[in-house]
Structure formats: structure tokens, C-alpha cells
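quick q for whoever's on today - can somebody do inverse folding on this one?? i tried earlier but teh output was garbage lol. C-alpha cells:
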């Protein structure tokens, strides 16, 4: 997908995730418009290795940008990683992908790492699915 995505392109992409990624056993991800210019994307991607990727995005449909997001990876109903754009300017190790980062064990709340390939301008799901596949190994 291009760096600017249309509603039609994004819906086509979202609803064909299991066909694009054979490691996905099921997806409940849906796009819900909440105004003429914005939409919410919500749902869960179930991977064949048992991991779940729970997704929330607030999307600008006029220019194809993501206003906000939250992504969480679960194994057996335990959150093992989450991604968010909450700025942490006090942590210089996150500057390379500011404000995008993820949390993981140990001390999941405070253990933050730069989130490469996560942005506001392109669909993040391919990078997130790749991360889940790596975690599942």
C-alpha cells in the first residue's frame, strides 16, 4: 500500500488479511466510520501459533493517516507486548522512532523499546504481523 491510503484501499487490505498472511487463522478486524472523514479500526488477528494481536486505530480518511493507535499482543490471555505513541521525551533511547514504541517484559509497563516500522502515515499491520510471527517462534 502507498504511504497515503484511501478508505477503499484500506478496507480491501483489512478484509483480506487472512488471504495475504497464511499464518493468520482468523481476523475480526473491521473499519467503522464515525464521520465523513474519520473511522475506527477495531478487532483481533488470531495467529495460528496462538498469539492474538488486538488492534485499535483512529484513522483520517481524507489523507490516509492514522491519528492514534493501540496494538497489544496476547499469549493465553496474557498481554506480552503493546505498542503506543505516548511520547516519552525523557527516554533518549526512544528518540529514533519518537513517539512510536512498544512495551515488553520484564517490567512491561516501564520496559520500552523503539518501534521500527510503526508510523502514522502507512498501515502498521504488516509490521505488527511480522513482529507477532517472530514472537511466536
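ok took a stab at it. sequence:
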Amino acid at each position: 500500500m502507498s504511504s497515503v491510503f484511501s478508505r477503499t484501499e484500506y478496507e480491501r487490505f483489512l478484509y483480506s488479511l487472512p488471504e495475504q498472511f497464511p499464518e493468520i487463522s482468523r481476523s475480526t478486524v473491521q473499519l467503522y466510520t464515525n464521520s465523513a472523514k474519520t473511522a475506527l479500526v477495531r478487532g483481533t488477528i488470531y495467529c495460528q501459533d496462538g498469539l492474538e494481536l488486538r488492534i485499535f486505530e483512529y484513522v483520517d480518511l481524507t489523507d490516509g493517516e492514522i491519528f492514534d493507535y493501540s496494538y497489544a499482543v496476547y499469549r493465553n490471555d496474557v498481554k506480552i507486548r503493546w505498542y503506543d505513541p505516548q511520547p516519552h521525551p525523557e527516554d533518549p533511547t526512544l528518540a529514533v522512532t519518537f513517539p512510536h514504541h512498544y512495551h515488553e517484559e520484564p517490567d512491561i509497563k516501564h520496559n520500552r523499546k523503539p518501534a521500527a516500522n510503526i508510523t502514522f502515515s502507512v498501515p502498521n499491520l504488516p509490521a505488527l504481523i511480522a513482529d507477532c510471527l517472530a514472537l511466536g517462534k
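fwiw Residues 7-135 form one domain. also The radius of gyration is 15 Å. so keep that in mind when u check it
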